[in-house]
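Forum: Protein Structure Q&A
Topic: Joint prediction for protein chains with partners

I've read a bunch of threads here and the consensus seems to be that you should model interacting components together rather than docking separate models afterwards. I'd like to see that in practice. Below is the full input, 561 residues plus whatever partners are listed. Could one of the regulars post the assembled result?
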Amino acid sequence: MTVTPMMAKQLAQKVIRKEPIFVLDVRNHDSFSDWKIEGENVQSINIPYFDLLDGVEEVMKELPDDREIVVVCAKEGSSIMVADMLAEEGKDVFYLQGGMKAWSEHLEPVKVGDTTQGGEIYQFVRLGKGCLSYMVLSNGEASLIDATRMTDVYIEFAQSKGVKIQHVLDTHLHADHISGGRKIAQQTGASYWLPPKDAVDVPYSYEALEEGKVITVGSTTIHIQPIYSPGHTIGSTSFIVDDAYLLSGDILFIDSIGRPDLAGLAEDWVGDLRETLYSRYKNLSEELMVLPAHFMIMEELNDNGSVGKKLGHLLSENHGLNIESEEEFRQKVTGNLPPQPNAYQEIRELNLGKITKNEEEQREMEIGPNRCAIR
Amino acid sequence: MIQANEVLDAKGLACPMPIVKTKKVMNNLEPGQVIQVQATDKGSTADLKAWAESANHQYLGTVEEGDVLHHYLRKASGEEMAETTHEPTVSNEELESALDREDSMVLDVREEAEFAFSHIPGAKSIPLGKLEEQMQELDKNKNVYVVCRTGSRSDLAAKKLANAGFGKVHNVVPGMSGWNGKTTSL
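Posted by a regular:
Agreed with the consensus. Here's the joint model:
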């Protein structure tokens, strides 16, 4: 029987289409329980490859006949070994090419909507890590928001659409993933925008992203309006795009809200977070489509794989927007926090330009799940 | 460099090869022997640790030298079901309260690599296999508390010492596997 490589892109599309998939994850138990491939129709079991060196007979009976079977490990080496053993026993199996490393780095572009003047807005879904970045296209130009370090993906996408990237923006100083913003700006000649309050003492030059400045995409009139919305970081800034989309960064998610502690200042920033969510956002149009910088669970994905919901819907459904007592809110977001993302302090320093890391080191720093939200 | 019975060079090899090779070499070792695995694959630490646990081997520790990881593992020895015949035995707690006494000493008879990664501060290391040749380094007038991982090797060591004329030899049961007191490493 045969062993076939499956690319992260293929697997991502199967997950989004909710095709039945069976994942045999052969990493060690700790890695698996920390972070794994998830999806509404994904079943998975975890048997470390080193427990299968003497044979796979035991696993054979656990494998279903009615699902595609994908063997997964950290980089792919062990999954190929196990897949070969399964094929010898008579199973048709896939292995995930590049392993969880590739899964973590894959970006799936999904169109979230049209803008006025014939423009478009795309969301880049990083399924493996829950990061979302955006490209707004109009009239031959593009702006890019919260770009990941996989910079080629955006540059190639812009080329395929025939647009030139003019502005690259970060809603805030990220602590969970490495920003590709500066690199793309350098490569394309675009300007790089960052909220000045998050960019204290950075050794590079940038455009100050502040409320009142309007960024135009294309020669016509797609506007990106910054809204100062502190709380996750002190500089956190949201954008209203074309009066229709609210890019909320790490402040507001679909089923959760931002956490104020990743710079070590939870007590100081909780008031800002409350003010942003309960005053500033509540004064915005409920018709705005909220497009966050992260998702936490697969249930937040819409049927087409995008992540986004009307602000009005979130105001009534998102628990984090419905905590009446300030005291309870304070306790919820400072006292009950999930573990912090892997290497988050180093990631902040890297995004601040204070340290440098090679590609392999950057990859290691980003391994693992995203943990930027409080549910 | 910490002594090992066998050194495996797995440098430059990617997962799963470091573990595949370690398993092969381990098969040819005697129970209780120590292997040093040299690897450059960063994932090898977590995987060797997890594999050792599932295969009942002991993962002792890792020393990082430049880009090379030196992992130390000890082959499963079956000493879990230790029968102790030497008398007297003392508990870990009893040893802990005897540590400060002038007339007592701790003799650790585990392999050098086990001792290197974690031992009781002030303990003297003489692996069981070297006890006969190094015995004269010990003071017969002291209370000698013999410790190993489970109480099995220390039982053999205690008997050897008693036969050689040591009058105040105590076997510590279970020993390091249940030790909650202070430890140090080399």
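The interface with chain B takes residues 28-31, 48-51, 53, 73-75, 77-78, 81, 364 of chain A (CB under 8 Å).
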